[in-house]
Amino acid sequence: MSRFVLTLDASEDLREIIEFIREDSPNAARRVLQKFRETMGKLARMPGMGHLRQDLADESLRFWPIYSYLIIFRPETKPLEIVRVLRGSRDVLNILQSNR
Q1: How far is CA 3 from CA 17, 43, 79, in A?
Q2: Residue 75 to residue 21: CA distance in whole angstroms
Q3: Residue-range definition of the domain harbouring residue 26
């Protein structure tokens, strides 16, 4: 079983996303959460799947889109570290820079 861990920021991001969706549809929130978990597990098995985004991060972070969100992770870590889960329309660059 491939493993991943969420940073505190990523855990909070995911909680906020699911709570927001749950307000309109608890069933949709369950489906979205399941999709996030499945995708994170897949990334843990194949961390090279992600995209490098040097325009957004100096570090060796990788990005993977899911719905309108970005899963941001460190591919070299074991277990795979999920750094953030952000809506793609947010100011990802400034958010990541403020985490340093």
Answers
A1: 22, 9, 5
A2: 28
A3: 4-98
Query: At 13, which CATH number?
Result: 3.30.2310.20
Sequential pLDDT tens for the chain (100 residues): 569 999 999 999 999 999 999 999 999 999 999 999 999 999 999 999 988 887 787 778 999 999 999 999 999 999 999 999 998 888 887 888 886 5
Rounded CA gap, 55 and 65, in Å?
16
DSSP state at residue 22: H
The pairing of beta strand 62-66 with beta strand 51-52: antiparallel
Q: How far apart are CA 7 and CA 67, in angstroms?
A: 21
